[in-house]
Amino acid sequence: MFLRFIIRSSVALTLLLGTTAWAQSSQVYKVIVPESVGVAAPAAVQLTHDQTNNAQAFPDQTWSVRGNSTKGVNIVFKVDTPFVHSTNNAWKVDAKLDLSVGTTQGPASWSVTKATDQTNITGNDLDAAVSATSNGVGRANMILKVSFLSPEWGTYAAGEYVTTVVGTVALNP
Questions:
Q1: Which of 112, 124, 143, 172 has the fewest CB atoms within 10 Å around its CB?
Q2: Is the pLDDT of residue 172 over 90?
Q3: Is the pLDDT score of 62 beyond 90?
């Protein structure tokens, strides 16, 4: 009887405590995403003057801008010179920039802070810049229109006139 009590107690204790041991462990996975900004320019573009006194507007160009900072980014598009004749830099024609926001992705809101600017050769203003900003993480297609501000047809030399737009993006402070 005492033996049965011990056997029953052992069985009960085994059932109560279990006979299988177990263990648990864990592993943490972490991804570090660095702050990053970027701007991508479209390919070079050219047009042939229509031989009128009208400004010669290039087709709208789409620049891709991105930033993953929660503070957002600032983007500036700038020309440091008006259009300059490719073989005789004495010949210059004013350049005009117009900026708007195209399609966007992500939670950021994008707004243009300076929509238009132009060079003014006679006023010795040889550069022009337009800009936009975002308030958070996102991507935007910025639409840039560049115009060759023709003086009266026939008053400037034939040939190729060139200017370069530089896009610079930076994190907002």
A1: 124
A2: yes
A3: yes
3 half-sphere exposure, CB direction, 13 A CA radius: 0
Instruction: Judge whether 83 and 125 are in contact, CB under 8 Å.
Output: no
- The mean of the pLDDT values for the chain is 92
> Looking at per-residue confidence, does 93 or 22 come out higher?
93
State how many domains the chain has. Answer: 1
Q: Residues near 17 by Cβ (< 8 Å), separated by ≥ 6? A: none
Q: Which helix (H) or strand (E) holds 169?
A: strand 165-171
Tell me which residue range forms the domain holding 165: 36-43+50-171
Name the pTM for this structure: 0.84
- Name the residue among 134, 121, 141, 133 with its Cα closest to residue 79: 121
Tell me, yes or no, whether 87 lies in a domain.
Answer: yes
Q: Which CATH number covers residue 127?
A: 2.60.40
